[in-house]
Design goal:
By secondary structure, the chain is an alpha/beta fold. It is about 55% helix and about 15% strand. It is built from 11 helices and 8 strands. It has an 8-stranded parallel beta barrel with strand order 1-2-3-4-5-6-7-8, surrounded by 7 helices. The protein is globular and about 70 Å long. The structure holds SN-glycerol-3-phosphate (G3P). SN-glycerol-3-phosphate (G3P) binds near residues 28 and 168.
Length: about 220
C-alpha cells in the first residue's frame, strides 16, 4: 500500500519524506488556504516546491466547476511537473473533464467521492485515482470503510486500474483497516502516519534493552 501525506505544509511533507516511507502528497483548496497560500501564482509556486521535496505523485486540485475551466486549469497544473495529478471533483463536468484528461495523457484524482456509484463513474472516466472520504462519512454516522470495501469489490470485478486512494483519514486504525481491505493508497495527516510507530511494549522493551546494556558495560 502506498502512503501519501494529506497536507500542503512543507515542513510536514519534508518530515514524512525523511522518514523514507512517503509515496506522494495530496492537497486541496482548504489545505492550501490553511498554509496561507493564496493567489494563482503563489499556489502554482507552492505545488512546484512540493514536487521538489517528494519523489512521488502530487495531487493538485482545480477550482473551476465547468468543463472548459477545469480543462484550462488542469492543463496548466499538469504542465508544472510530471508528478502532478489533477484533482477533479465528482460532478457532471468533472466526469467529462476526467475523460478528456485521460484521453490526453493527463493523470487525474477524482475527489469528493462518497458512494460506490460515484467511484464506478470515476473508473469509467479513466481516473488514475479515486478518493473516497472515509472520515467525512464516519462524521455523519455512515461507514467510510464499508465504502472502500465496496469500491475494491467493484474494481476487482471488472479489472479497473483506477487506484483506490483512501482519504479523509482521521486515525491510525483507518490506515490499518484500509490496508486489510486492499486500498491501493492511503493519504493521511502526518500524525496518523507517526501514530503507527507507537506501541507501549516497544517503548518498555527498548528501555530494558538499553538498561541491561548499561549494566553489562
Ligand atoms: O484531501 C482530501 C481529504 O483527505 C480531506 O480530509 O480531514 O478534510 O475530511 P478531511
Amino acid at each position: 500500500m502506498k502512503f501519501f501525506i494529506d497536507t500542503a505544509n512543507l515542513d510536514q511533507i519534508k518530515e514524512a519524506q525523511e522518514l523514507g516511507v512517503l509515496d506522494g502528497v495530496t492537497t486541496n483548496p482548504s489545505l492550501m488556504a490553511k498554509e496561507g497560500i493564496t493567489g494563482v501564482d503563489n499556489i502554482m509556486k507552492h505545488y512546484k516546491k512540493i514536487c521538489e521535496i517528494v519523489d512521488g505523485d502530487v495531487s493538485a486540485e482545480v477550482i473551476s466547476t465547468d468543463f472548459d475551466g477545469m480543462i484550462k486549469e488542469g492543463e496548466a497544473l499538469a504542465d508544472l511537473n510530471e508528478q502532478i495529478v489533477v484533482k477533479v471533483p465528482m460532478i457532471k463536468d468533472g466526469v467529462k473533464a476526467m475523460k478528456y484528461f485521460t484521453d490526453h495523457g493527463i493523470r487525474t484524482n477524482c475527489t469528493l467521492v462518497f458512494s460506490a456509484g460515484q467511484a464506478l463513474l470515476a473508473a469509467k472516466a479513466g481516473a488514475s485515482y479515486v478518493s473516497p472520504f472515509l472520515g467525512r462519512l464516519d462524521d455523519i454516522s455512515s461507514d467510510g470503510l464499508n465504502l472502500v470495501d465496496e469500491i475494491r469489490l467493484i474494481y476487482d470485478n471488472y479489472g479497473y486500474e483506477t487506484e483506490i486512494l483512501a482519504a479523509s483519514i482521521r486515525h491510525p486504525m483507518h490506515i490499518i483497516e484500509c490496508a486489510k481491505i486492499g486500498a491501493d493508497v492511503v493519504t493521511s495527516p502526518l500524525q496518523s502516519i507517526l501514530a503507527l510507530l507507537n506501541h507501549p511494549l516497544t517503548s518498555i522493551g527498548l528501555e530494558k534493552f538499553l538498561a541491561d546494556h548499561k549494566k553489562g558495560n
